[in-house]
Design a protein that fits this description.
The chain is built from six helices and six strands, in the order E-H-E-H-H-E-E-H-E-E-H-H. Helix 1 links the parallel strand 1 and strand 2. The longest helix is centred in the last third of the chain and has 25 residues. It starts with 7 loop residues before the first strand and ends with a helix.
Protein backbone atom coordinates (compact mmCIF):
# COMPACT_ATOMS: atom_id res chain seq x y z
CA UNK A 1 0.00 0.00 0.00
CA UNK A 2 1.40 3.38 -1.03
CA UNK A 3 1.63 5.90 1.79
CA UNK A 4 0.31 9.32 0.79
CA UNK A 5 2.76 12.07 1.64
CA UNK A 6 1.66 15.25 3.33
CA UNK A 7 2.85 18.37 1.50
CA UNK A 8 5.42 20.47 3.34
CA UNK A 9 5.11 24.26 3.18
CA UNK A 10 8.33 26.22 3.62
CA UNK A 11 8.16 29.44 5.63
CA UNK A 12 11.10 31.83 5.14
CA UNK A 13 12.00 33.41 8.47
CA UNK A 14 12.03 36.97 7.18
CA UNK A 15 9.91 40.09 6.70
CA UNK A 16 6.29 39.40 7.71
CA UNK A 17 7.08 35.96 9.15
CA UNK A 18 7.82 37.39 12.58
CA UNK A 19 4.42 39.08 12.76
CA UNK A 20 2.36 36.26 11.26
CA UNK A 21 4.26 33.11 12.26
CA UNK A 22 1.43 31.77 14.42
CA UNK A 23 -1.28 32.62 11.88
CA UNK A 24 0.57 30.97 8.99
CA UNK A 25 1.63 27.87 10.89
CA UNK A 26 -1.84 27.38 12.37
CA UNK A 27 -3.54 27.85 8.98
CA UNK A 28 -1.40 25.24 7.24
CA UNK A 29 -1.56 22.80 10.17
CA UNK A 30 -5.37 23.17 10.35
CA UNK A 31 -5.45 21.99 6.74
CA UNK A 32 -3.35 18.97 7.72
CA UNK A 33 -0.16 20.24 6.08
CA UNK A 34 3.31 20.32 7.54
CA UNK A 35 5.49 23.41 7.72
CA UNK A 36 9.25 23.85 7.69
CA UNK A 37 10.72 27.15 8.86
CA UNK A 38 14.13 28.30 7.74
CA UNK A 39 16.81 28.53 10.41
CA UNK A 40 17.37 31.85 12.22
CA UNK A 41 19.19 34.55 10.31
CA UNK A 42 22.97 34.23 10.32
CA UNK A 43 25.89 35.48 8.25
CA UNK A 44 25.49 32.70 5.66
CA UNK A 45 21.81 33.59 5.09
CA UNK A 46 22.67 37.27 4.64
CA UNK A 47 25.56 36.53 2.27
CA UNK A 48 23.42 34.17 0.16
CA UNK A 49 20.68 36.80 -0.05
CA UNK A 50 23.20 39.45 -1.09
CA UNK A 51 24.47 37.13 -3.82
CA UNK A 52 20.98 36.51 -5.19
CA UNK A 53 19.34 39.92 -4.83
CA UNK A 54 19.21 42.67 -7.41
CA UNK A 55 21.49 45.61 -6.64
CA UNK A 56 18.69 47.90 -5.48
CA UNK A 57 17.28 45.40 -2.96
CA UNK A 58 17.16 46.46 0.67
CA UNK A 59 18.78 44.41 3.43
CA UNK A 60 15.41 42.97 4.50
CA UNK A 61 14.81 41.65 0.97
CA UNK A 62 18.29 40.18 0.82
CA UNK A 63 17.77 38.38 4.12
CA UNK A 64 14.40 37.08 2.92
CA UNK A 65 15.96 35.72 -0.29
CA UNK A 66 18.67 34.03 1.76
CA UNK A 67 15.98 32.30 3.81
CA UNK A 68 14.13 31.22 0.67
CA UNK A 69 17.36 29.81 -0.74
CA UNK A 70 17.88 27.73 2.39
CA UNK A 71 14.47 26.10 1.85
CA UNK A 72 14.90 25.24 -1.84
CA UNK A 73 14.46 21.50 -2.35
CA UNK A 74 13.52 20.91 1.30
CA UNK A 75 9.76 21.43 0.96
CA UNK A 76 7.02 21.02 -1.61
CA UNK A 77 6.06 24.70 -1.63
CA UNK A 78 7.51 27.92 -0.26
CA UNK A 79 5.00 30.51 0.96
CA UNK A 80 5.64 34.07 -0.21
CA UNK A 81 2.64 36.34 0.46
CA UNK A 82 1.91 39.38 -1.67
CA UNK A 83 0.79 42.20 0.65
CA UNK A 84 -0.02 45.65 -0.71
CA UNK A 85 -1.81 47.00 2.36
CA UNK A 86 -3.80 45.98 5.40
CA UNK A 87 -6.34 48.79 5.03
CA UNK A 88 -6.58 52.52 4.41
CA UNK A 89 -3.39 54.26 5.58
CA UNK A 90 -1.87 50.86 6.36
CA UNK A 91 0.25 50.54 3.24
CA UNK A 92 3.35 48.41 3.20
CA UNK A 93 6.50 49.02 1.22
CA UNK A 94 5.86 48.42 -2.47
CA UNK A 95 8.49 45.67 -2.34
CA UNK A 96 6.05 43.51 -0.35
CA UNK A 97 3.69 43.58 -3.34
CA UNK A 98 6.46 42.50 -5.68
CA UNK A 99 8.13 39.98 -3.36
CA UNK A 100 6.43 36.90 -4.82
CA UNK A 101 7.32 37.89 -8.39
CA UNK A 102 10.91 38.71 -7.47
CA UNK A 103 11.32 35.43 -5.57
CA UNK A 104 9.70 33.36 -8.30
CA UNK A 105 11.96 34.85 -10.99
CA UNK A 106 15.16 34.45 -8.97
CA UNK A 107 14.44 30.77 -8.24
CA UNK A 108 12.71 29.92 -11.54
CA UNK A 109 15.33 27.39 -12.65
CA UNK A 110 15.31 25.47 -9.37
CA UNK A 111 11.96 23.83 -10.07
CA UNK A 112 10.75 24.88 -6.62
CA UNK A 113 7.01 25.50 -6.31
CA UNK A 114 5.80 28.66 -4.59
CA UNK A 115 2.52 29.65 -2.96
CA UNK A 116 1.15 33.12 -2.52
CA UNK A 117 -1.92 34.96 -1.36
CA UNK A 118 -2.84 38.47 -2.42
CA UNK A 119 -3.75 40.91 0.34
CA UNK A 120 -4.91 44.36 -0.73
CA UNK A 121 -7.65 45.41 1.67
CA UNK A 122 -8.17 48.83 0.06
CA UNK A 123 -9.09 47.13 -3.23
CA UNK A 124 -11.30 44.46 -1.67
CA UNK A 125 -8.80 41.63 -1.21
CA UNK A 126 -8.87 41.02 2.54
CA UNK A 127 -6.90 38.47 4.51
CA UNK A 128 -9.76 36.00 4.94
CA UNK A 129 -10.49 35.83 1.21
CA UNK A 130 -6.78 35.64 0.43
CA UNK A 131 -6.29 32.66 2.73
CA UNK A 132 -9.47 30.94 1.54
CA UNK A 133 -8.19 31.30 -2.04
CA UNK A 134 -4.81 29.95 -0.90
CA UNK A 135 -6.44 26.89 0.65
CA UNK A 136 -8.43 26.29 -2.52
CA UNK A 137 -5.25 26.54 -4.62
CA UNK A 138 -3.95 23.64 -2.52
CA UNK A 139 -7.03 21.54 -3.29
CA UNK A 140 -9.12 22.22 -0.19
CA UNK A 141 -12.73 23.33 -0.33
CA UNK A 142 -13.74 26.91 0.47
CA UNK A 143 -15.42 25.62 3.63
CA UNK A 144 -12.26 23.77 4.79
CA UNK A 145 -10.12 26.79 3.98
CA UNK A 146 -12.41 29.18 5.83
CA UNK A 147 -12.46 26.92 8.89
CA UNK A 148 -8.64 26.79 8.86
CA UNK A 149 -8.52 30.60 8.51
CA UNK A 150 -10.90 31.11 11.45
CA UNK A 151 -8.81 28.75 13.61
CA UNK A 152 -5.60 30.53 12.61
CA UNK A 153 -7.05 34.00 13.16
CA UNK A 154 -8.32 33.05 16.63
CA UNK A 155 -5.00 31.47 17.61
CA UNK A 156 -3.09 34.56 16.41
CA UNK A 157 -5.38 36.90 18.37
CA UNK A 158 -4.97 34.80 21.53
CA UNK A 159 -1.19 34.90 21.14
CA UNK A 160 -1.23 38.69 20.68
CA UNK A 161 -3.50 39.12 23.72
CA UNK A 162 -1.19 36.95 25.80
CA UNK A 163 1.87 38.92 24.66
CA UNK A 164 0.20 42.22 25.60
CA UNK A 165 -0.72 40.94 29.05
CA UNK A 166 2.86 39.76 29.66
CA UNK A 167 4.31 43.22 28.98
Amino acid sequence: MKKETIPVIGLPRGLLYHRYEILWQTFFHALGLETRVSAPTNRAVVEEGERLAPDEACLSEKIFLGHVSSLIGKCDYIFVPRVANLGRNLDLCVRFSALYDLTYCIFLRTGQKFLTCNIDVVNGAGEEDAFCDLGQSLGFSRKESKKAWKTAEKTQEQAWDKAVKEQ
